[in-house]
Amino acid sequence: MLSPGSGNTVIKSKLINRRMFLLTAAKAVVMVGLVGRLISLQINQATKYKSLSDKNRFREWKLAPERGAIKDFFDTKIASTEPLYQLHLVPENAKDLDNLFVRLKAILKITDRKVSYLKRVIKKQKPWEPVIVSENLNWSEFSRINLFLHELEGVEPIVSVARTYPDNSSAHILGYVSQISAKDLQTKEYLKELAVPGMAIGKTGLERKLDEQIIGKVGYQRYEVNAFGKRIREIKIDEGQAGKSFKTTLDYEIQKYTNELLKDKAAAVCVMDVYNGDIVSLVSSPTFEPNEFVHGLDKAYWNSLIKDEKKPLGNKALSGLYPPGSTIKTLVALSALENKIIRPLDTFTCKGKIELYGEKFHCWEKDGHGIVNLRKGIQRSCDVYFYEVARKLGVDKLSETAKRFGLGKKVLSDFIEERSGVVPNTKWKKKFIGQNWYLGETLHSGIGQGYFQSTPLQLCLMTAQIANGGFEIKPRIIVDEKNDNLRNYLKHKNENPNEPLPTDLLISNFNLKPLFKNQEHINLIKDAMFSSSNEPGGTSYRHRLENPKYTFAGKTGSSQIKRFTEAQREAEVKQESLPYKDRDHALFVAFAPYKNPQYAISVLVEHGGSGGKTAAPIAKKVIKKVLERHELRRSANNKIGESV
Amino acid sequence: MLQPRSIHSSLSLKDKLSSIDYILVFSIFILGLISIMAMYSTDGGEFKYHTNSHILRFFIFFGMFLIISFVQIRFWHSTSFLMYILFFLLLLGVKYFGLTSSGSKRWLDLYFMNLQPSELMKIGLILFLAKYYHRISIENINQIRFLFLPIVVLIAPVILVATQPDLGTALLIAAGGLTVAWLAGVKVKFFVFSGLSFLALLPIAISFLKPYQKSRILTFLNPERDPLGAGYQIIQSKIAIGSGGLFGKGFLQGSQSYLDYLPEKHTDFIFTLFSEEFGFFGSLLILFLYAIIVWRIVKIGNITRSNFGKLYCYSFATAFFIYVVVNMMMVLGLLPIVGSPLPIMSYGGSSMMAIMLGLGIAMSCKIYKDTPVN
Q1: What are B's interface residues with A at a Cβ cutoff of 8 A?
Q2: CB contact under 8 A, A56 and B261
Q3: Chain B within 8 Å of A19 (Cβ-Cβ)?
Q4: Per residue in B84-123, pLDDT tens?
Q5: Which candidate from A20, A35, A228 shows the least CB-CB separation from B287?
Q6: Is residue A25 assigned to a domain?
Q7: Would you say A248 and A71 are in contact if contact means Cβ atoms under 8 Å apart?
């Protein structure tokens, strides 16, 4: 059976088997290598690869939290988060985009420019990423879209939320919200974790001051995504946390009323509770529309805002700096009394001007006020009287009193736009201007001109602290707790006329800080202010309120923009005949009711001429309105303790 | 076909059935079922196109494997040269009438299926060389003149396939051919010599590479070079396998493949998918099944009396092993992505057909182990 060369065949078989043995050994080695690799990947490095796989798999979307509300003192929402109707379009769901846009144009007001913009966006994005066709639909548009929805494949009506303000009456103090900018992200630490694309944050006013707390906690939506970034399914949702709501001391009714009064004027009004510093109203005019800022501002509207010479964007009550003018005379007189420079009945003779240090100092009354004492000096706002008082007092003592009463420093905290103003003195001038003080400048300071700069809010605080009998108050705009120390102290004093404790001990028992040395001096100033508003010859006599329930005591002022030339003085040029920009700012401060003061007010009208003519009538109306709502406010105040 | 009858070829059906290697058949079948499961998973847990057509192909070619097993080994021996020539002609046909897809021309449209002749050539070359070395005597093996034909029959299809271009398959065809030659006793010096000449020709060969092929080699050397481009596949495959851990993410739970992070999951990366879902132990099972298949074929080679059968079985086992290892090393990030399917597991009719043909011939060696081939 052996074929030729069968021996050969056997040798060959052996050779083949031998070589196969070598190959098999090599295979075993390779197998071990493969298993080793599997061990390394699936056992040793499994954790690393699992996390890499999850990183592949999951993507998180941040959810913008709902912004907390801001309420007024009576719990009316003056800034809230309201539903917003939007129209989104998911391109991959639309069969025919061009046709769809034609249909949408027929239903909504969409410009051709917007359509071509949307088409460009769609080209850049992934087909399943939605584009926002319309940011803010009104209800009728939204319902019309829903009606035609079956014909509009790819379109999704979305109910979202956005900041809404009931009106523009409190735009300045509330501020506005707008999209996060790159700069915000760099400068604001709290936004680092929060930032959700498209989220609105507070840019000015309370919205900015409260931003960190009011903004809430960001939610997360965790999705499983495929390799192309398309969301496959929702894995987890964390709704986040709505921001904290805040109650303010503002009275929305008065805000609206005041805002209406100031319409078309460049003006500001502050109203403050004289005992606890609650800011009842703070209005700056002209106002702007805060709702416009929420969804990206219209360019034309923005341009109209920044070009307006009345500067609607600035908060004049907080950041407008004006020389206090004659309103400072209350403090000049008080400082002189406290420093025993003058006595109330000391007189000076006003002849319309005095000449000192080779310079002429004019009284606003060209013919002079004749013999003037403190009361008449304030009543008539006699400049010459206060030149004389200031000369004797000196600027440093005056500045000390002015600072004590709140001028020259910020009244509220954390308002980026608030400014501190200037209370000049010799040291200040040396430091900031680098020159020595001239005595003539003391005279200008005595009537609130020259270097003096103050905000309407500071003047309101000053007046409030005079009105409450000379106690320090800490103005506030956010209601945290009841703050009735000063009222309780006065009540205690009224109910216990024979209180054995010495007054200063009693004051400190009530945790109060007096700003006076002798309270009688404060009363003298208040009385003089009463005469200024309620006695014939007073600078605001024409705008008094006769009902004792509303009677106020005030002080007019005008801050000079340009000094009158001698020629203008001779010609008795009236403010009204000057160009708008050259007219004086009109000021008026007051407190009311005189007998039992509750509120202080400051009114500023830019280029309004004289305080008595333009600012006092506004104050009169606002005071009446505020006092009408006083009982309501007190009862709301009594409830604070219960809800907090 | 009429063959001169001998005692060895007059095996009864019972003899034939009893001499089937059931362990081998069983392993192949189990692997086939696993591959159907994996394919079902690539379709997202549904019986869709890939799964259905894979099931069909597996059962058709598994049946073919069984039928081929009963065809006399003598037949395979006598038709070896013819088969090589047939496959070579098909390859030439691809060059002129082939279908082009993703930039390469690899397929012939046979109406009922798209045939990839390069896969068949893997078996054809082994058959040809096994017969060639079976026939020449041991003294002549290392004679230069007897080396010419093997070199020509090896180089010709390799060049045809490499220029399709399909570098991976070309290299695998060459590996099979070289294995036969080495087992037959060709001296190592010849391999060293041709290796050196290959290296010398390498720069010229590289200049013929397509840019994407160059990029694949560079990417293999540093996958993070281009994480979203060519390195993406290696990185995602490693993530999938690594994240499978010890026990895997569970059947139909492979997030990497389910979410389309895994490229070519039906074909080259089927092991990755399985490994992600069944973890380290699942991977070991697959390796184990392949090891059994290789071991059984080697065993058949060992008991087969003819040198043709020996050469064929040893070479096919080795080639089969190389296919498996190259694919796995590729998806495990140990080799560049050259594009080579995993035998039996991967989706693809031609590969399945070639592997089943090869296995069938090996089984025929088992059934007719004592039958001389000439």
Answers
A1: 137-138, 179, 182-185, 236, 238-246, 255-256, 259-261, 275, 279-280, 283-284, 287, 291, 294, 298, 301-302, 307, 310-311, 314, 318, 321, 325, 328-329, 332, 334, 372
A2: yes
A3: yes
A4: 999 999 999 998 888 887 667 888 888 878 899 999 999 9
A5: A35
A6: no
A7: yes
Let me know whether A333 and A231 are in one domain.
no
pLDDT per position as a tens digit, A474-523: 999 998 877 788 888 888 888 888 877 887 788 888 888 899 999 999 99
Query: Does A1 score more than 70 pLDDT?
Result: no
Domain assignment present for residue B153? The answer is yes
Is residue A13 assigned to a domain? no
> In the prediction, which pLDDT does B167 show?
79
**Helix, strand, coil % (nearest 5) of chain A?**
45, 20, 35
Q: How long a stretch of residues is chain B?
A: 374
What pLDDT, on the 0 to 100 scale, is given for residue A2? 38
Q: B304 in the Ramachandran plot: left (φ > 0), alpha (ψ -120 to 50) or beta? A: beta
pLDDT of residue B290: 97
Q: Which residues, other chains included, contact A380 with Cβ-Cβ below 8 Å and sequence gap of 6+?
A: A365, A369, A372, A532, A537, A538, A539
Interface ipTM: 0.90
A-B Cβ pairs (cutoff 8 Å, strict): 123
Q: Are residues A305 and A208 in the same domain?
A: no
The answer to whether residue B44 is domain-embedded is: yes
Question: In Å, how far from its chain's centre is CA A640?
Answer: 23
Structural domains counted in chain A:
3
B374 domain-assigned: no
Is B181 a domain residue? Answer: yes
Alpha carbons B355 and B62: distance in angstroms, whole number: 10
In chain B, the residue whose alpha carbon lies closest to the alpha carbon of A2 is B372
Scanning A22-81 for CB atoms below 8 A from B yields 23-24, 27, 30-31, 34-35, 37-39, 41-43, 45-46, 48-50, 52-54, 56-57
Given this model, what pLDDT does residue B120 score? 95
Domain match, A478 and A409 both: yes
Nearest to B262 by CA among A515, A57, A141, A348: A57
Whether B241 sits inside 8 A of A42 (CB atoms) is: yes
Q: Which stretches of chain B score pLDDT less than 70?
A: 1-10, 102-103, 213, 216-230
Q: What angle do CA A181, A187, A188 make, to 5 degrees?
A: 85
Domain end position, chosen among A233, A248, A263: A248
CATH number of the domain that A591 lies in?
3.40.710.10
In terms of average pLDDT, the best of A356-360, A527-531, B204-208, B330-334 is A527-531
Are both A382 and A512 inside the same structural domain?
yes
* Subunit contact B138:A8, Cβ cutoff 8 A: yes
Tens digit of each residue's pLDDT (9 = 90 or more) over B126-156: 999 999 999 988 888 888 889 899 999 999 9
Q: Which tokens go with A197? A: 């694309």
Q: Mark which of A129, A146, A162 sits at the end of a domain.
A: A162
Q: Are residues A417 and A509 in the same domain?
A: yes
Residues of B in contact with A34 (CB under 8 A): 287, 325, 328-329, 332
- Domain range spanning residue B224? 8-367
Does residue A22 fall inside a structural domain? no
Q: Does A632 touch chain B (CB under 8 A)?
A: no
Lowest-pLDDT choice from A217-221, A274-278, B18-22, B358-362:
A217-221
For chain B, the distance separating the N- and C-terminal CA atoms, rounded to the nearest angstrom, is: 15
A24 closest CB neighbour out of B260, B298, B372:
B298
Residue A547 in contact with partner chain B when CB distance is under 8 A: no
Distance in angstroms (rounded) separating the CA atoms of residues A234 and A54: 14
Q: What is the extent of the structural domain holding A205?
A: 57-76+166-248
Q: Which of B183, B246, B283 sits opposite A20 (nearest CB)?
A: B183
Of A35, A46, A53, the CB nearest to B256: A53
Which chain A residues contact residue B372 at CB under 8 A? 3
Query: Which tokens belong to B3?
Result: 């063959």
**Residue A14 lies inside a defined structural domain of this protein:** no
Asked if A418 and A508 sit in the same domain, the reply is yes
Chain B nearest-CA residue for A43: B245
pLDDT score for B1: 42
d(CA A638, CA A387): 46
User: Rounded to two decimals, what is the model's pTM?
Assistant: 0.67
Q: In chain B, how many domains are there?
A: 1
- Answer yes or no: do A378 and A471 share one domain: yes
Same domain, A212 and A243: yes
